[in-house]
Design brief:
By secondary structure, the protein is α/β, with parallel strands linked by helices. The strands form 3 sheets. Strands 3, 4, 5, 6, 7, 14 and 15 form a 7-stranded mixed β-sheet that branches. The chain has a 6-stranded parallel β-sheet with strand order 10-9-8-11-12-13. Strands 1-2 form a two-stranded antiparallel ribbon. Helix 7 links the parallel strand 11 and strand 12. This is Alcohol dehydrogenase. InterPro entries: ADH-like_N, ER, GroES-like_sf, NAD(P)-bd_dom_sf, Zinc-ADH_QOR/CCCR. Keywords: NADP.
Length: 327
């Protein structure tokens, strides 16, 4: 089978097609025929081993490989068909179309992948293609996790900093579905797309700093690593909630003081990416309450271009690779 592999850290052109043996499912595993996979910022960061947040660099390097990657095939969020069942696997049937995550096991940048059936894997929404379904798990699972923690009530004001990313796009839609009045912060190139999926207001961060405005919000969801935490907290109304999906190390410490000495809440609980959440997303998508936004679809032979597209920050939605279709 073909995979997109890399054997050393570096720029997008370290990615290459490679032939490897087709895997066989072990006890309790599923053999998946991967059809589409989202190319994420995390994929690009693991490939280059350059991260905007530095505090987890050492433990991650020890886990993923000190001098070269231990797992040479990236890809965590995908859509696939079940080709075979390992002994004891009974959750799905051969031929089922599913979507979900491989977590840090990775491997979805290949035509086939074996995963335990206990992983967050759910049959795909009936109204999505493989490419659209692959664009859901990363953004959807993380956004749903944080929007539930935010406890948004009807009519509350919500600011999403980094609204044009994979997670921000779903957070915006879920916040709107919960009754929030949403301000999206991102680059000007993304304004049209963000308004189309429900943004009530838009701030171009290159022209205006929301932390220097007099506007106050009930909820701020931050997906930008380098943000002035103290200034942002001042933008919350009394009783307001701050949530960070991409925290710097001090963003893990300062919330304790915020919660202890103010009437505001700062929440930094990491997403667990649970099956129940994936089912909830599927239901919301089939009810047409939220939807994935796909920027571009590339064949696996163009993985380098896909990584470049993600890194240049001009994408309007998810970038997706199809596995094994191009000749």
């Amino acid at each position: 089978m073909k995979v997109i592999a890399y054997d050393h850290y570096g720029p997008p052109n370290v990615l290459r097609l490679k032939e490897v043996p087709k895997p066989s499912p072990k006890i309790g595993e599923l053999l998946l025929r991967v059809r589409a996979v989202e190319v994420t910022k995390a994929d690009c960061e693991l490939r280059s081993f350059r991260f905007p947040v530095h505090w987890f660099w050492l433990p991650l390097r020890l886990t993923m490989g000190i001098t070269k990657p231990r797992r040479q095939v990236l890809g965590s969020y995908f859509a696939a068909e079940i080709e075979a069942l390992g002994e004891g696997a009974s959750k799905f049937e051969v031929g089922d179309r599913i979507f979900g995550t491989a977590h840090l096991r990775l491997g979805a940048y290949g035509e086939y992948l074996c995963l335990p059936e206990t992983y967050p894997l759910v049959t795909m929404p009936s109204n999505l293609s493989f490419e659209e379904a692959a664009a859901v798990p990363l953004g959807g699972l993380n956004a749903l996790h944080f929007m539930r923690l935010a406890e948004i009530e009807q009519g509350e004001s919500v600011l999403i900093n980094g609204a044009g990313g994979s997670i921000g796009i779903f957070a915006l839609q879920i916040a709107k579905d919960l009754g929030g009045h949403v301000t999206a912060v991102d680059r000007s190139i993304k304004e049209g797309m963000l308004r189309q999926i429900g943004a009530d207001h838009f701030i171009d961060y290159s022209k205006s700093d929301f932390t220097k405005s007099d506007q106050k919000y009930d909820v701020i969801f931050n997906m930008v690593a380098r943000v002035n935490y103290s200034a942002a907290i001042k933008c919350l109304k009394p009783g307001g909630r701050w949530l960070s999906g991409n925290p710097q190390f001090f963003h893990l410490i300062k919330p304790f003081l915020t919660n202890l000495f103010s009437d505001k809440r700062a929440i930094t609980k990491f997403a667990g990416e649970k099956e129940e959440e994936l089912i909830a997303l599927k239901d919301m998508i089939e009810a047409k309450r939220i939807k994935p936004v796909v920027d571009n679809v590339y064949p696996m032979e163009e993985a380098v271009l896909a990584h470049q597209r993600v890194e240049n920050e001009d994408r309007l939605g998810a970038v997706v690779l199809t596995m094994g279709r191009a000749k």
